[in-house]
């Protein structure tokens, strides 16, 4: 066996993986499987259990999640656990004590259908009791049953993967502490350990809750916090004396108390996310030697578990209430939690060759390991993990204070009922747009966008409700109306009929400059970038296999200056992608302008009147047609006016130095007043205006799973120049698409209880006889975006449909909150339901 | 039968003990707290006696406010009530501790029939408090006991010796210190924990007599160095294992 635990380390390796939990072993194993060689896996602790979170994990897996990415990682992990023969299927039930939870279980059912997790079913309390005879069914209203849920042996899985990697030539060094990570010219160079140094091209940090500390050794950030999850084991329970397996009964998640109970051999394990958030610093975690149990099994603080004892007792009185059943084990176990609850995967933006595989739980471990290995070897992964990209975080999101505030807020929502538009309350007002004071005065309701405060709608526009009367639909169901206002629809109509101005400060903006700039953007972007100065190009950015990495706009401001404007949410990831694909000779550079520029959108049939009132420059369609941008003077401001639209009306994005934004706002507001222009929130920009025009959004319609042809964006010819993903893209154009992006409308909103319901996105699309729709690539059809279309008077859904259903007039169903509603395909390509000829944009 | 069990809150340490900067205490930032295994057995023994003979088991501790946690833990496995002699957390020497316990015993409304101790505390290990309490109260004391049986007004105690067993029989009331292994303490049940929350704890401020024993500082024993030696792998390791077994005298 190739182990260095008592010898010296290899002097040079291609890859060093730090951390031998489920994640590190999985990354190492998959690297070997993909043909990588010269790999060393090191851990500070002993093997097979080095003392991290893998060693004390409860090890159960419920596959259904509302997030596509997380469900994909979990399903992929389950396949691996099964292949390794360490998966014990026992089923799992999420039980409901409240009506609100029953509604959430309906959503679970929908998500199971959307992501193809089958079978699942809703159970009555009596049915739960049949499966879990020791449960107190009187407390329950029902349950969501996933027979495929199960328990894994994660330590065994890690061991098998490690052994297989060793067979492929990997070296292991346990009891080896990392003392330093040397960086040279921005790239990782060397790992210094307690057993010597290893030079390495790439280093993977898979150190769980120690990851922030290890990353810091290289000057990089892996922004997570160790947080306590309390867990006890009681036993032996007479009920389990004759247990045939480790888990004869389904795992119970008592969702409304934020707890779970599961049989573990002769005992019952009880875990909780209900206690106060208890966080630590990665530097504070005790050493292996100092720990009574292990560094991540901290002393149980019983006082924090008091309510949980009671709630477990009332749910499972036969076992928990038995005085002969003792508490044999109790810990404050450490987990890794992030500011947005998602993992941290990929190359760190700070140090080339330094990779993060952190904030991953048992249920995602093998899938995340495989994904990171693929990213390292191929530059892309089978599962699109853009939401988990370690590069996604803006600077303030990497701070300890922010991570702690967000984890403190979200910890008790681990089993929570989280609305798709749920807003954070903690650590807000970090990034304020230059219009913030004005927006406050207008009663802006702020949602957070990439850390910015961004108006979703303005209460000052409430008067528009009267003006537009019945054309503005109200939402009767609280869930549908949460984080929403009918004012959004009224603002939409005001923009469509007059004009509106929209705060777009949250855009990420960066310039690609230098003699090699054209070649760089040409290579990165799918569309032809060698355009005249003053033109902009809306272009997909492709992965090597032709999936969407991004969609964004690039303005050519000079021969050697290209300005990239992209959505805030993925701005940092996009910037890293550009940066990674710059020519190696230094002939092109990236300058981030995100915090230097603000964008104010101005659109509507009267927009030209407004803009003309504040500038002497010619901004007529003749002088500045659609697709062009040019600098204009507006009073004393120099503004870059770009004739673009994401809402389907004539208008501009006006880019100005951020410190001059307030002045720009005042000029637009004053000039707009006589034309009835109103401030308009992001609700219109991102949803109603966009959906009426069928414009696709990254992360919703566009991701790595679908290609440009399927998205209906393969207009024009393929450029001659080479670009990332070209070969795949050409092949995609030659083949018939397996699915096409369609726009649908809802035909009848009325539920069984006579309430009009409005979908929010993520719902499964079904055939008229209620079957899931699956395309030739095995992808299921679901609602990628949903929202009102006030100008067309219909509620709009978008989604991919296979050719047999992608036909205008095709009738289908959408499942929402346990009921099915009829929908009709309104467009099976990029044609929009509103102004299909695009006359408004180009007028 | 009224039984009093005396326990001391101590840190639950791992393999390596870390001292505070002034070297006068153990760094407990990441440690849980417990009582010594001997004391845990003492509590278990008291509970078993009460289960068999009736009466009540009271746990007593002298320690900081946080030491109530240890009283509740032992009430969770069946002790009926607690007495908490609350200190500021500083270490009391055996003489002062014994004096405070004696005062507490004397102030009890009901006479105590049996006072149980662990043979020593897990941290200081002075082995003195039980004997000092017995002496002050004028009671017989048996220490290091591995078996107890009760017979009307007498208690029979067994000590393990290298030669066998020493058996003592003393009249009640008496003081007995027990050693780990006398029984296998039970784990607390959830109902036990919940009942423990409602059981009475009488808190009192003990009078601290002058300390004659003064702790200057703590020192850690030298580390034992290499902890494990790999003798070999697979069947090839057999001769080395045999040799080792001979060396250490088990073969």
CATH superfamily of the largest domain in chain A: D-Amino Acid Oxidase, subunit A, domain 2
Computed CA radius of gyration of chain A, to the nearest angstrom: 28 Å
Count of distinct structural domains of chain A? 4
What's the number of extended β-strand segments of chain B?
11
Mean of all residue-level pLDDT scores of chain B: 93
Q: Please estimate the helix content of chain A.
A: 10-25%
**Count of runs of 4 or more consecutive helical residues of chain A:** 21
Q: Approximately how much beta-strand content do the residues of chain B carry?
A: 25-35%
Assembly state here? heterodimer
The Cα radius of gyration of chain B reads 21 Å
> Structural class of the helices, strands and pairings of chain B?
alpha/beta
Q: CATH architecture of the largest domain in chain A, please?
A: 2-Layer Sandwich
The N- to C-terminal Cα distance of chain B equals 49 Å
Quick overview of this protein structure:
The complex is a heterodimer of chains A (843) and B (251). Helices cover 24% and strands 27% of the residues of chain A. Chain A is built from 21 helices and 39 strands.
């Amino acid at each position: 066996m190739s182990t260095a635990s008592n010898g010296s380390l290899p002097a040079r390796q291609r890859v060093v993986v730090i951390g031998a939990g489920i994640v590190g072993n999985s990354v190492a194993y998959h690297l070997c499987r993909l043909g990588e060689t010269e790999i060393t896996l090191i851990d500070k602790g002993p093997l097979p259990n080095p003392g991290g979170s893998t060693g004390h994990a409860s090890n159960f897996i419920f596959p259904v999640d509302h997030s596509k990415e997380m469900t994909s990682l979990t399903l992929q992990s389950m396949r691996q656990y099964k292949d390794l023969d360490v998966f014990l299927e026992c089923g799992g039930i999420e039980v409901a004590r409240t009506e609100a939870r029953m509604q959430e279980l309906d959503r679970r059912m929908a998500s199971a259908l959307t992501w193809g997790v089958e079978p699942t079913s809703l159970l009555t309390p009596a049915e739960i009791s049949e499966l879990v005879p020791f449960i107190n069914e009187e407390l329950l209203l029902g349950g969501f049953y996933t027979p495929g849920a199960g328990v894994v042996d994660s330590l065994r899985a890690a061991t098998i993967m490690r052994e297989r990697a060793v067979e492929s030539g990997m070296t292991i060094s346990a009891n080896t502490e990392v003392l330093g990570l040397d960086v040279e010219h921005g790239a990782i160079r060397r790992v210094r350990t307690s057993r010597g140094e290893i030079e390495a091209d790439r280093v993977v940090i898979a150190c769980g809750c120690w990851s922030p500390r290890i990353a810091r050794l290289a000057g990089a950030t892996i922004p997570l916090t160790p947080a306590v999850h309390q867990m006890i084991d009681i036993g032996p329970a007479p009920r389990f004396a004759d247990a045939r397996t480790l888990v004869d009964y389904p795992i119970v998640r008592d969702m409304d108390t934020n707890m779970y109970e599961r049989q573990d051999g002769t005992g019952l394990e009880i875990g909780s996310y209900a206690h106060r958030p208890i966080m630590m610093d990665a530097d504070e975690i005790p050493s292996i030697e100092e720990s009574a149990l292990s560094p991540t099994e901290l002393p149980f603080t019983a006082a924090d578990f008091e309510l949980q004892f009671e709630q477990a007792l009332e749910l499972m009185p036969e076992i928990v209430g038995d005085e002969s059943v003792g508490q044999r084990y109790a810990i404050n176990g450490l987990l890794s939690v992030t500011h947005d609850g998602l993992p941290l995967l990929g190359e760190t933006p700070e140090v080339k060759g330094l990779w993060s595989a952190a904030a991953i739980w048992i249920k995602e471990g093998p899938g995340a390991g495989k994904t990171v290995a693929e990213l390292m070897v191929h530059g892309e992964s089978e599962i699109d993990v853009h939401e988990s990209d370690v590069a996604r975080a803006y600077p303030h999101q990497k701070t300890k204070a922010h991570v702690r505030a967000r984890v403190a807020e979200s910890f008790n929502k681990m089993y929570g009922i989280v609305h798709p538009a749920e807003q954070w309350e903690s650590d807000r007002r970090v990034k304020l747009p230059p219009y913030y004071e004005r927006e406050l005065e207008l009663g802006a309701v702020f949602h957070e966008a990439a850390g910015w405060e961004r108006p979703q709608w303005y209460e000052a526009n409430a008067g528009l409700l009267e003006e537009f009367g019945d054309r503005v639909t109200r939402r009767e169901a609280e869930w549908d109306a949460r984080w929403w206002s009918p004012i959004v629809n009224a603002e939409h109509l005001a923009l469509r009929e007059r004009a509106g101005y929209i705060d777009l400060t949250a855009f990420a903006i960066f310039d690609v400059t230098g003699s090699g700039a054209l070649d760089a953007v040409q290579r990165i972007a799918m569309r032809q970038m060698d355009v005249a100065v003053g033109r902009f190009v809306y272009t997909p950015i492709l992965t090597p296999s032709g999936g969407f990495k991004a969609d964004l706009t690039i303005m050519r401001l000079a021969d050697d200056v290209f300005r990239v404007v992209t959505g805030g949410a993925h701005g940092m990831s996009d910037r890293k992608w550009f940066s990674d694909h710059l020519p190696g000779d230094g002939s092109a550079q990236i300058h981030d302008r995100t915090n230097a520029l603000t964008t104010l959108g101005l659109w509507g049939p009267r927009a030209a009147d407004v803009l003309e009132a504040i500038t002497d420059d010619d901004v007529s369609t003749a002088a500045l047609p659609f697709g062009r941008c040019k600098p204009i003077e507006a009073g004393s401001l120099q503004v870059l006016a770009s004739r673009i639209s994401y809402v389907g009306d004539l208008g501009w994005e006006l880019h100005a130095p951020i410190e001059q934004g307030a002045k720009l706002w005042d000029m637009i507001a004053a000039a707009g007043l006589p034309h009835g222009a109103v401030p308009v929130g992001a609700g219109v920009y991102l949803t109603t205006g966009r959906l009426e025009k069928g414009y696709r959004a990254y992360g919703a319609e566009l991701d790595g799973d679908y290609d440009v042809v399927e998205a209906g964006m393969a207009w024009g010819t393929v450029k001659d120049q080479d670009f990332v993903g070209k070969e795949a893209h050409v092949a995609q154009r030659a083949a018939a698409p397996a699915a096409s992006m369609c726009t649908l409308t809802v035909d009848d909103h009325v539920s069984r209880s006579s309430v009009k319901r409005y979908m929010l996105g993520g719902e499964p699309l079904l055939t008229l006889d209620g079957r899931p729709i699956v395309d030739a690539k095995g992808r299921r059809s679901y609602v990628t975006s949903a929202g009102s279309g006030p100008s067309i008077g219909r509620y709009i859904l978008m989604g991919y449909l296979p050719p047999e259903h992608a036909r205008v007039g095709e009738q289908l169903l959408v499942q929402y909150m346990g009921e099915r509603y009829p929908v009709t395909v309104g467009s099976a390509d990029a044609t929009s339901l509103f102004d299909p000829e695009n006359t408004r944009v180009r007028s | 039968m009224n039984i009093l069990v005396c326990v001391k809150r101590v840190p639950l340490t791992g393999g390596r003990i870390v001292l505070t900067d002034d070297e006068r205490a153990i760094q407990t930032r990441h440690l849980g707290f417990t009582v010594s295994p001997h004391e845990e057995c003492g509590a278990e023994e008291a509970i078993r006696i009460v289960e068999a003979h009736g009466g009540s088991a009271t746990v007593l501790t002298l320690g900081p406010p946080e030491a109530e946690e240890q009283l509740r833990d032992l009430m969770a496995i069946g002790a009926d009530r607690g007495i908490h002699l609350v200190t500021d957390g500083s270490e009391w020497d055996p003489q002062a501790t014994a004096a405070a316990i004696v005062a507490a015993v004397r102030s009890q409304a009901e006479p105590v029939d049996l006072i149980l101790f662990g043979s020593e505390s897990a941290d200081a290990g002075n082995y003195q408090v039980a004997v000092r309490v017995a002496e002050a109260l004028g009671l017989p004391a048996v220490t290091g006991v591995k078996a107890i049986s009760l017979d009307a007004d007498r208690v029979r105690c067994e000590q393990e010796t290298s030669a066998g067993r020493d058996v003592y029989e003393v009249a009640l009331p008496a003081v007995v210190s027990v050693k780990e292994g006398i029984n296998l303490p039970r784990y607390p049940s959830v109902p036990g924990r919940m009942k423990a929350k409602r059981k009475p704890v009488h808190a009192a401020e003990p009078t601290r007599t002058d300390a004659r024993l003064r702790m200057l500082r703590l020192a850690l024993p030298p580390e034992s160095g290499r902890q494990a030696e790999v003798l070999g792998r697979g069947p090839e390791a057999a001769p080395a294992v045999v040799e080792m077994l001979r060396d250490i005298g088990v073969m």
